[in-house]
C-alpha cells in the first residue's frame, strides 16, 4: 500500500476494490472444479459476508485518512478478536475457555503496546473520533465476516465460499471507485502491486485462512489474527531497519505468549 501511494498516487478505496476483484477472479478460477450449487441460505450468507468485506475496506481506509494508520490499525485489529469472542458463543455455540480469554487479553495488550505505545497521546478532535468510530465499524465488519464464515464452512468448501464472498464484496465496493480521481491512471501505474495484493495478500491469504477456520474455533482464529501487526513489525525491523523500543519488545513477547496459548495442540483440541 505504501508503494502504491508513493508510485501511483493510489486511492485506498480504489485499492480495496481492485484487490477484491483480482481475488474474486482468481478464487473463482481456483474453485471452478469444486464449485457446486450453493443453497439459497449459503448464497445469502456469502452476499452478507461480501458486504462485510466491502464495508471493512471502506471503513478502514476512510478511518486511516481521518485518524491515521496507527490509531486505525490499533482499534480495528484489537477490537475484531474481542467482537468475535463476544459473538461466537451466541452465534456458533462456542465455549470461550479461560485459556482463550487469557490469550485474548494478552494479545490485545501486546498489540496495543506494539502499535500505539511509541506514538504517545493523541489530541482528541472530532476528526479523530470519527476515524475511531469507523475503525470500530471495520472491526465489527470483520468479526461478523469470521462468524458467518465459520458457520457456513460446515456446509460449503473453503474455496467456493471465499470465491463467492469476494465476488459479492467486489461488486458492492465498485461504486466507491467513482469517488476516486483518475482511477484508470492509478490502475495503469500500480498494476504490479495490485496483482500482488489481490493475488497473494487477499486471494491466497483468505483461502488459507478459511481452510484454517474450518478446523479451529472462531475465537481462536480471532486471537491468531493478532499475528498480523507482529509480523509487520518484525519485517519492518528486519527489512527496513526500523527500531523496536522497550514497549514494543514487551508487546511482542505478550503476543508470542498469546499465540503459544492458543496454538498448542492440547489447547486447540480442547477448545474446538
Describe this structure as you would to a colleague.
The chain has 272 residues and is mainly α. It has one domain. 80% of the residues lie in helices and 0% in strands. The longest helix has 31 residues.
Short characterization:
It is built from twelve helices and no strands. With 272 residues, the protein is mainly alpha-helical. The two termini are 35 Å apart.
The number of helical segments is 12
Number of domains: 1
Radius of gyration: 19 Å
Mean pLDDT: 82
Low-pLDDT segments, ≥5 res: 267-272
Task: Report the portion of residues in β strands.
Answer: under 5%
Main pleated sheet: none
Tell me, briefly, the overall form: globular
Order of helices and strands: HHHHHHHHHHHH
Helix content: over 70%
Protein traits:
single chain; 272 residues; mainly alpha; 12 helices
List the SSEs and their pairings.
Elements: H1 2-8, H2 12-31, H3 40-67, H4 69-92, H5 98-115, H6 126-152, H7 158-173, H8 183-213, H9 218-224, H10 227-240, H11 246-263, H12 265-271
Helix pairs in contact: 1-8, 2-3, 2-7, 2-8, 3-4, 3-6, 3-7, 4-5, 4-6, 4-9, 5-9, 5-11, 7-8
Amino acid at each position: 500500500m505504501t508503494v502504491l501511494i508513493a508510485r501511483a498516487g493510489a486511492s485506498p478505496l480504489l485499492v480495496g476494490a481492485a484487490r477484491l476483484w483480482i481475488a474474486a477472479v482468481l478464487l473463482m478460477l481456483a474453485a471452478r472444479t469444486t464449485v457446486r450449487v450453493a443453497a439459497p441460505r449459503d448464497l445469502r450468507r456469502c452476499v452478507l459476508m461480501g458486504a462485510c468485506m466491502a464495508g471493512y475496506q471502506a471503513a478502514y481506509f476512510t478511518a486511516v485518512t481521518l485518524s491515521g494508520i496507527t490509531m486505525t490499525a490499533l482499534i480495528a485489529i484489537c477490537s475484531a478478536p474481542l467482537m468475535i469472542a463476544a459473538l461466537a458463543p451466541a452465534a456458533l455455540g462456542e465455549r470461550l475457555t479461560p485459556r482463550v480469554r487469557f490469550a485474548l487479553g494478552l494479545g490485545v495488550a501486546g498489540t496495543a503496546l506494539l502499535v500505539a505505545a511509541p506514538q504517545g497521546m493523541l489530541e482528541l478532535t472530532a476528526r479523530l473520533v470519527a476515524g475511531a468510530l469507523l475503525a470500530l465499524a471495520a472491526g465489527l465488519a470483520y468479526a461478523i465476516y469470521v462468524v458467518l464464515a465459520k458457520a457456513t464452512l460446515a456446509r460449503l468448501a473453503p474455496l467456493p465460499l471465499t470465491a463467492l464472498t469476494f465476488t459479492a464484496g467486489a461488486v458492492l465496493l465498485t461504486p466507491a471507485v467513482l469517488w476516486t480521481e483518475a482511477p484508470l491512471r492509478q490502475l495503469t501505474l500500480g498494476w504490479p502491486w495490485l496483482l500482488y495484493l489481490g493475488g497473494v495478500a487477499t486471494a491466497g491469504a483468505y483461502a488459507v485462512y478459511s481452510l484454517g477456520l474450518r478446523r479451529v474455533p472462531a475465537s481462536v482464529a480471532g486471537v491468531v489474527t493478532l499475528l498480523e501487526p507482529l509480523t509487520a513489525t518484525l519485517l519492518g525491523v528486519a527489512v527496513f531497519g526500523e527500531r523496536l523500543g522497550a514497549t514494543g519488545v514487551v508487546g511482542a513477547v505478550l503476543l508470542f505468549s498469546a499465540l503459544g496459548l492458543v496454538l498448542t495442540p492440547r489447547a486447540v483440541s480442547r477448545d474446538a
